[in-house]
Amino acid sequence: MITLLYFARLRESFGISSEQAAPPAEIADIGALLEWLRSRGDAWQNELAPGKPVRVAVNQAMATNATPFAEGDEIALFPPVTGG
Amino acid sequence: MITLLYFARLRESFGISSEQAAPPAEIADIGALLEWLRSRGDAWQNELAPGKPVRVAVNQAMATNATPFAEGDEIALFPPVTGG
Amino acid sequence: MVRVQNEDFDVGAEIAELRRDNARIGALACFVGLVRDLNEDDSVSEMSLEHYPGMTEKALAEIVAQARLRWEIADALVIHRIGTLKPTDQIVLVATTSAHRHEAFASCEFIMDYLKTQAPFWKKEQTAQGARWVDARESDDTARQRWNA
Amino acid sequence: MVRVQNEDFDVGAEIAELRRDNARIGALACFVGLVRDLNEDDSVSEMSLEHYPGMTEKALAEIVAQARLRWEIADALVIHRIGTLKPTDQIVLVATTSAHRHEAFASCEFIMDYLKTQAPFWKKEQTAQGARWVDARESDDTARQRWNA
After folding, report:
1. Is the pLDDT of residue D56 over 80?
2. Domain boundaries in chain A?
3. What residues in C contact D21, CB-CB < 8 Å?
4. pTM of the model
């Protein structure tokens, strides 16, 4: 299981702020995880479409599509940040 | 007559903070005025020696050796500034 | 020191505390970010700030650590508010101290530029046209990237 | 606004006043210069600041006017103290406000760099080796000149 967190516009579009998920074992990096989430269709397909500016953090550190993840990780998806 | 003002190290070296002076009529720019003041000798010659970093303001605006001055002007001599 | 809080902050008290009794400090630079009543030509009546608890504090601490690697800083303080804010409210305070002014200015601006692009905060504005998430600005990425030049 | 005064100043109160009720301000940058207890490797017990009354105010106002020509500033404040000061005392405050942070940071640093090299103030330090006039620094000239690059 991994913990998925959603913030800001993604949280609103998906209608949830977090979930426990169990992607298939062959899904081992962020690029594959996003592909898997897109297959849920609707808001997932739309918000996570390639080219959309989605940011991902694995265990609270910024990640790229090539970043691997493992059982128990906390993975957060969010739009580009706008604080300050 | 012109008013001469001295600040900081120059004020201390000359022993005065201001004076009314009447340089000869042919002395019409700052370069010539400094030469005339140097002719007083001692601290004047020393502090105003060519190459010493002396700053001059005419009527409270920064001046160079080529800046002219006239009867009634306020001319200030001081070291490079060190505020802030 | 890094703080994320709902409450407002007192700039005078914070910077007095930051430099207290340290006679090696010759320079203090500080920045305050404020809610404007106008953004992208629309009037803004209210703003809410969301963040990623845990990661925010880590990201801010990392930015301050990066600044300390680059400049001789005596101390640095970052306070960022979350929750609902109104025009003229204070959003963020960054203050840095150093022996000399260049280090204080540069580190303060560096921390702000990185905070803007790296710390997980998101703003949602209430405008006359309804609520909207604020878009990230390309100029903020450009501002951050110049530190790598 | 430009002030030269013997009295100390309250940074919090000054910047609150500078931005009061102006919801177009999104950024406030401020700088405070402080007396250090060490200069050129000698301990400093006291400092006295002399200035050229009349010209000082004109020079500071001119520096602020130059900053306004370069950046969109909402307001700018310069307070510089004169007289006798001790380590940790505040010497100078420069604060600028703008819609955006780059303008606030740049104008604040510009004003400080010009103040350091153009405003007629002179510092005399009391050290264990006696009193001495502080020498101007070449690095301050360099800092000012980069604005013309």
Report:
1. yes
2. 2-78
3. 88
4. 0.95
Q: How far apart are CA A83 and CA A66, in angstroms?
A: 26
Q: Scanning the structure block, which residue is given the tokens 């600028």?
A: D96
pLDDT at C71 over 80: yes
* SS3 call for C14: helix
Alpha helices in chain B (DSSP H): 8-14, 30-38, 42-47
CA angle B49, D113, C114 (to 5 degrees): 150
Q: Is the dihedral of CA A31, A37, A42, A48 positive or negative?
A: negative
What is chain B's pLDDT, residue by residue, as a tens digit (84 residues)?
A: 999 999 999 999 999 999 999 999 999 999 999 999 999 999 999 999 998 999 999 999 999 999 999 999 999 999 999 999
Tokens 């306070």 map to which residue?
C79
Q: Chain C residue with minimal CA distance to D88?
A: C23
> What sign has the CA pseudo-torsion C46, C52, C53, C59?
negative
Is A2-78 a CATH 3.20.20.140 domain? no
Domains of chain D, with CATH numbers? 2-148 (3.90.1170.40)
Residues of D with a Cβ under 8 Å from any B Cβ are 33, 49-52, 54-55, 58-59, 80, 91-92, 112, 115-124, 133-136
Q: C54: nearest CA in chain A?
A: A60
Those residues with Cβ within 8 angstroms of residue C65's Cβ, 6 or more apart along the chain or in another chain:
none
